[in-house]
Amino acid sequence: MSWHLLVDQLVNGLGTGLIYFLLAVGLTLIFGVRDFVNFAHGAFFVLGALLSWTMLEHGMNFWIALAAVPLAIGILGFVLEPVLIRRFYDVDPAFQIVGTIGLTLVIQEVATMIWGPANRSTQPPDLLQGIVNLGFASYPAYRLFIMAVAVVVGAALWWLIERSKFGASLRAGAEDRDMASCLGINTGMLFAITFAIGVGLAALGGVLAAPTRGLNTGSSTEILGIAFVIIVVGGMGSFLGAFVGAVLIGLAQSITIAFAPAWGSVVIYIAMIVVLMVKSDGLFGKVARVR
Amino acid sequence: VSADSRRWPLPLTRPGGLVRPAALALVSVVLLGVLAPSWSVATLILIYALAALGCNLLLGYTGLLSVGQSVYFGVGGYTAAIVATRWDLQLSSALIISALLCAAVAAFIGAFAIRRLGIYFVMITFAFAETAHFLAYVFKDYTGGENGISGVPLGSFGGFGQSFFIATPGLLFYCMMAVLFFVLFVVLQRFVDSPVGAVLVAIRENEARAEAMGYSVKAYKLLAFMVSGAVTGIADGDHDRHHHGARGHQVPVRVLPGCARVRRPEHLPVRPLALLGATAGGRADRHRPVLQGRFAGCAVCTRQPRHETSGAEGDRGSGPRRRGGERRCQPLRSMQSLPS
Questions:
Q1: Whole-prediction pTM value?
Q2: Which residues of B touch A118 (CB under 8 A)?
Q3: ipTM of the predicted structure?
Q4: How far is CA B331 from CA B10, B144, B212, in A?
């Protein structure tokens, strides 16, 4: 294999990894706060992509869609949390999973009624079309943009969770719900906002991914699968884990594709099984949370 | 205490326990044939019902949520199709091979999965389901990749080169499927009523206690996995006859909505409910979006009693946090009526 191909694949892998980070971070956020496994995450991702497609079809600006769609899905999540999601917090994880799979199917079928089963992809904005020469490799400008967004989102989330007052309440609520509410924190509101942010991030990922690949209403399982691989490898509920896991999985996938294209997706799931068998809480998981 | 023992979901001694469920299944099957809009839809419903039976054994009786049931659905379908097109075997032999292979695959996956609990258990089954899905694309030469396998012959029954009965699509295929469903239903009913079935329920109710009673929890879980896999495999062994071709993208969650509804056997008779669940799912292929069935899946889940954290902690043991506190404190008496 030529040196150039390997460098190309490494850059590709890093780019894919950062996109994957956007995909997984919302999932890990929701799990980290309430130990809630959101199997509907992929559906919100696809919903975001399809909404942005509709907006662009109606002649709207890409940038408006980029801001409006995650906000809309976030509001949907904010409404959904007290109506549906909250009922699942205190039951067996099996019910959370079956319930959110049900939610996925509802979203999927409604979306199929609206958008049909065909693949939908959008055009990147004019500003970001073309290829940028990085010196050691050339890379599409739009993918560089996604990488930048992922880094910015990561930094903003880190600040929000680790440095802001909201983050402090959130961590307190995750640590000890009863004590946090005794201290006057509105934990119900806190979790609703967390869920809204989580699904809003999924929608953001969907809007950003729509120009790079086609998405249809059936894509949610595939998307969800990748997100789960990442958060399992990185450690469920760990913010840093989602980042490291995403980059590792992106790299592993693109390097495997260079050698054996068909095995690219198989490899990451085998990695997931190995991590689960060897160290269930992943690279950065909190041991105390493991049950 | 007496109030608690009333909640024991499956009475261990049930006079005439087999007759009533079997009669219900028979009536359901006949009614389905009469009421369904076409034989094809009715057959599909039975196929999903069969898959739901396999799923229910694992989720409803043993308390294990496997989101990887699609693996057996897929393996069963591909095996039956490959065996029929390459070796020219009849449906009867293909189904047996499918069931055995699915049991073997289930044993393999189960051997990994049962070593983890709760969410991690589910994650392992999920990872295996996705691995299997993508492996179907890797081994294109056998599975046909995106195109699937075509030219699968009609289902014929017989052996030693003789064919006694050929199930042409329509009424005949439905009848064959109905008989198969009924037989497997009765077999499974016997299985869950057997001492082994009682142990499976005990594991669901309180894993730590079942282990303390001396049962090898892992072995029983593995057994449930294998039986469930075999039944699900048989379901799809029929499914591809029905559609004349197995496809790789039978997505993992296909059978699951049916299972959501059969989670709590103590609330409603299990099997007719499974059939009902599968009914809603099966019609999906005719009228594309079937919201009512899927909403129902959500609705039943949300009606689950809340987990009471207080009081459950002390009794949790090494088992997963699973059920309400009062359920954890089942009187030992009801366990003692288990076979040893």
A1: 0.76
A2: none
A3: 0.85
A4: 15, 55, 14
